[in-house]
Design a protein that fits this description.
This protein has 286 residues and is mostly helical. It folds into two domains: 53 residues; 214 residues, MetI-like (MetI-like fold, Orthogonal Bundle). The chain has 13 helices and no strands. Helix 4 runs parallel beside helix 7. The chain is globular, with a radius of gyration of 23 Å.
């Protein structure tokens, strides 16, 4: 024991608190998943029991796939979220590089505007955004591409301030000598950005992409205004309709919630190291 690492009482208390907090966070998700394999009556009478034996059923998932357009909703969600993440990392990356490496008159005001952009919630801008998109005939149209684009554009704008703030901190920590050497070798600013900055800032770009993807995937408010037709609805919009129409069918609701959150859990489990590394890498200037 003398050679082992000593654990203080404070560390034990911290681990206990964190363990309890993790349990209270994970258990509701576990509860929803196990109840998705039960009939409505079993959920009401044995909501905390494991779905074993005669209690286990896949009827809720069969009903969800038969009565709901799950696959088209997943497709729409993936198109929207992937497009938002890709556009954000490209635009925010170039903006961060310009704000950090170039001196110009409006640099400080632009930095202030970027930070100020994080203070305005989407609720305060939805009316002018809706009017602009409606005047461009992108809302309530039969075109799937235009409907999805009407959601993508506001979500890109909503993620830009956060993405620029995160990427600016990381780009500022990169050694400028590498970029100067590339410039002396004949590289132009775009080549320096894509060949030097992007490879070195991969953790931070991954963080921005993941958060943009998750925020877009879970964004119900924008979808409620802009995705009106059933065939254009994304997965969270579909779940909201299900809650309104099937408010007492708890088994179907649990199955639908499980179908919504499982992709998010998979993304987070496999990419959590990039989230943690990207958020902390730019905190200390190298």
């Amino acid at each position: 024991m003398s050679r082992g690492k000593k654990i203080s009482l404070g560390s034990v208390v911290i681990y206990i608190v964190l363990g309890f907090w993790a349990l209270t966070t994970i258990y509701p998700i576990f509860w929803v998943i196990i109840n998705s394999f039960k009939a409505k009556g079993e959920i009401l009478s044995n909501s905390f029991a494991l779905p074993t034996g005669a209690m286990f059923t896949l009827a809720n998932y069969r009903t969800a796939f038969e009565r709901l357009s799950i696959f088209s909703a997943y497709r729409n969600s993936m198109i929207i979220s992937t497009s938002v993440a890709a556009i954000v990392i490209v635009l925010a990356g170039m903006a961060s590089f310009g704000l950090v490496r170039y001196e110009f008159k409006l640099r400080k005001p632009l930095n202030s505007l970027v930070v100020a952009g994080m203070m305005f919630p989407v609720f305060s801008t939805i009316i002018p955004v809706y009017r602009m998109l409606s005047s461009a005939h992108m809302v309530n149209t039969e075109s799937l591409a235009l409907s999805l684009t009407s959601v993508i554009l506001p979500q890109v704008a909503g993620n830009m301030s956060f993405a620029i703030v995160v990427l600016t901190g990381y780009v500022r920590s990169l050694p400028i000598e590498l970029e100067e050497s590339a410039y002396l070798e004949g590289c132009n600013p775009f080549q320096i950005f894509y060949k030097i900055v992007v490879p070195l800032a991969k953790p931070s770009f991954a963080t921005v992409a993941i958060f943009s993807f998750l925020w877009s995937y879970n964004d119900l408010f924008t979808q409620m205004f802009l995705l009106r037709l059933p065939q254009h609805r994304a997965i969270t919009r579909l779940l909201n309709e299900l809650t309104s129409n099937e408010g007492t069918n708890f088994g179907l609701m649990a199955a639908s919630v499980a179908l919504v959150i499982i992709p998010i859990l998979i993304v987070y489990i496999f990419l959590q190291k990039y989230i943690i590394k990207g958020m902390t890498a730019g905190a200390v200037k190298g």
